[in-house]
Specification:
By secondary structure, this protein is of the alpha+beta class. It is built from ten helices and 19 strands. Helix 7 packs antiparallel against helix 8. The protein is globular and about 125 Å long.
Length: 648
């Protein structure tokens, strides 16, 4: 065997604690032990499963046919993986609010100049009631609206087909007359069809996110008390956050995307062997080690589970959720799913060429072809053909008579005796009976003696003499003291036991004719609807606000309002001397590319403790400008965020 060259040993970043007797273990040692297991576990999970749902986590309207809550859905137990191999484990079903409380539908029929009877007249009626300026609404845009509402479950497939195939407007007309007439100001790319759809239905995206919580506050050994902030969490509780949003979650990178694209491209070179192709793709797709987060302050990616449609107006059935789309969603493939989809090792690659099949039966003879042109005359032959044989001449005589038989000749000698070949061997006979058993052989010599067992224990020796001096008399037992009073129970450490969040980072504009001396929400409202169980909560909010050049020097105002109780819980006003931005968009502050853009971006954030009863409650961010009714964009808002937390 060749000598081992120890200089070829390459170390990796994984280390684990090596224990020895008398070792002093510190926090650093124990964290190193956890870090070794976490990094290796998440690396294997990331490379084995990928990103997305492993099993379960279905979003559905009820559990086992039980009651269907009007504005909530259930998520069944299951397991998912995030892109870094963190396990997202939901051990029991959870109910999640996804829809706002329903509104009472209006009744505003189209009557001018006459009730609509077909798609063209209905589109014209919608144009007259809702369109402003150059906004147009025709039958093509009406069809887009019908398909949108059909996909969200506000129209049945039969109603959509009746509209598409025969121009039946009964169902779509019944929905449109519920909307209060208005003239919305639409900023491109917003369309009137999208505005009308938003008045009739809402969309909520549901996702799951890894979370950690520090628990079990414990005093340090050097100071056995929980005063002066000397207690420290002794456990890390793994959890998941169920996240809802009106906008789609940011796309999550799929660690298997490069591998999937490589397989789809097929094998390189001339080989068609799927095993070789899979090998070529695997050796090109290493992505470094998976992280392990010891601290509980990291923000983790959200894995999308479902898109939900719900009706804004009260439904006859009482259920506001109209459609749940669980698939497509990110799926963590793992071994079983790869075999199901790919049918074996090769995935979707072509297998090697099979053997040539047998020759098929001969097909029927085709029709005769057309006669070809006559070829040129060949050269003359050297000799002509041989003529026919002439007839027999008359000169031949007749045959003479037969002569007499001659005498018999003598007998010839006897031939030599020759032995014929041996015949074939006959078949074998039956096996004869078994013979008698032979006599038993002589007994072999005796083996050597074994070692004997240990003998019995000898008798116990006599007891030694008693110690010197007599034993003193036992003293009387003292009276038992009274039991002291039990001390008060210590308070538990802080922990978030209930949380609702809303995030909308979109850059949105408000026009003066809408926000002039009036508080209004952005087109996609910064609005959080929650269903707390009741108690004391912390409400957090924040937003970024800018005034545009069209906004001039007018003052900006903002407020946070509890729309359920119709009460303002926080407000602010921005000074008139702030520097304006361009009308089209807010400066990009995420990089240095927008450092030279003009204008100020003012941040507004607030926090308020408040007591809430159990039940639905809605909080909304609203904005206004004083004395500016310009129809252009006067202010812009982005990064609207609201959180409601119950802390124990």
């Amino acid at each position: 065997m060749a000598d081992v060259n120890v200089n070829n040993r390459v170390r990796n970043s994984l280390t684990r604690v090596r224990y020895f007797f008398g070792q002093l273990l510190t926090q650093r040692d124990l964290e190193a032990e956890q870090l070794f297991n976490l990094r290796l576990q998440r690396l294997i999970q990331r490379e084995t499963f990928g990103t997305g749902t492993v099993r379960g986590l279905k979003v559905q309207p009820n559990l086992d046919g039980g009651p269907t809550p009007p504005t909530s859905v259930f998520i069944t137990p299951g397991l998912a993986m995030d892109p870094d191999g963190r396990e997202l484990l939901l051990e029991s079903a959870v109910c999640v609010p996804v829809a706002e409380q329903p509104l009472q539908p209006g009744n505003f029929p189209f009557t001018q100049p006459a009730p609509p009877t077909d798609p063209a007249s209905l589109a014209a009626a919608v144009q007259a009631r809702f369109a402003t300026g150059s906004t147009t609404f025709d039958t093509t845009r009406l069809t887009v609206l019908v398909n949108d509402l059909g996909a969200c479950g506000l129209m049945t497939q039969a109603q959509v087909d009746a509209f598409t195939n025969s121009g039946n407007i009964t169902a779509i007309n019944a929905l449109l007359v519920q909307i209060t007439p208005s003239k919305p100001a639409l900023d491109p790319p917003d369309t009137l069809a999208a505005f009308l759809a938003d008045q009739l239905r809402g969309t909520t995206f549901v996702g799951i996110q890894y979370a950690e919580t520090a628990t079990e506050p414990t005093p340090a050994v050097l100071d056995a008390s929980c005063t002066d902030n000397q207690c420290f969490p002794a456990r890390t509780q793994e959890a998941v956050l169920i996240v809802t949003s009106a906008d789609a979650f940011p796309a999550v990178d799929d660690p298997f995307e490069d591998f999937r694209a490589c397989l789809a491209a097929g094998p390189t070179g001339t080989t068609q062997d799927p095993t070789v192709a899979a090998c070529e793709c695997l050796i090109e797709s290493w992505r470094d080690m998976a992280p392990a987060d010891i601290e509980c302050t990291t923000s983790f990616p959200i894995i999308a589970l479902a898109q939900i449609c719900w009706a804004r107006f009260q439904q006859p059935s009482g259920a506001q959720v109209t459609a749940i789309s669980n698939c497509p969603r990110s799926i963590a493939p793992g071994g079983p799913l790869t075999r199901i989809i790919g049918g074996g090792t090769g995935g979707n690659l072509p297998g090697p060429p099979g053997a040539t099949g047998p020759t098929g039966d001969r097909g029927p003879q085709g029709d005769p072809g057309s006669r070809g042109a006559t070829g040129p005359t060949g050269p003359a032959g050297l000799f002509g053909p041989t003529g026919p044989t002439g007839p027999t001449g008359p000169g031949a005589g007749s045959t003479g008579a037969t002569g007499p038989t001659g005498p018999t000749g003598p007998t010839g000698p006897t031939g030599a005796a020759v032995t014929g070949p041996t015949g074939a061997t006959g078949p074998a006979g039956d096996t004869g009976p078994t013979g008698p058993t032979g006599a038993t052989g002589p007994t072999g010599p005796m083996g050597p003696s074994g070692i004997g067992a240990t003998g019995a224990t000898g008798p116990t020796g006599p007891t030694g003499p008693a110690g010197v001096g007599p034993t003193g008399a036992t003293g009387a037992t003292g009276a038992t003291g009274a039991t002291g009073a039990t001390g008060p129970s210590g308070s538990g450490g802080p922990a978030v036991i209930e949380q609702f969040t809303f995030v909308n980072d979109a850059d949105q504009g408000l026009t003066g004719n809408v926000a002039n001396n009036a508080f209004v929400a952005t087109p996609t409202a910064g609005r959080l609807t929650a269903s707390p169980t009741g108690g004391t909560y912390l409400l957090f909010w924040s937003a970024e606000i800018s005034r545009t050049n069209t906004g001039g020097g007018n003052r900006l105002l903002a407020r946070m309002r509890n729309t359920t109780a119709n009460s303002v819980v926080g407000n602010i006003r921005f000074i008139q001397s702030m520097e304006n931005i361009a009308d089209g968009a807010m400066p990009d502050d995420s990089t240095l590319t927008g450092i030279n853009s003009s204008g100020e971006v003012a941040g507004w954030a607030g926090m308020l403790p408040l007591t809430l009863d159990a039940g639905a409650v809605t909080f909304e961010l609203e904005f206004a400008i004083n004395n500016n009714s310009n129809t252009g964009t006067v202010l812009r808002v982005r990064r609207q965020r609201i959180a409601l937390m119950k802390v124990h």
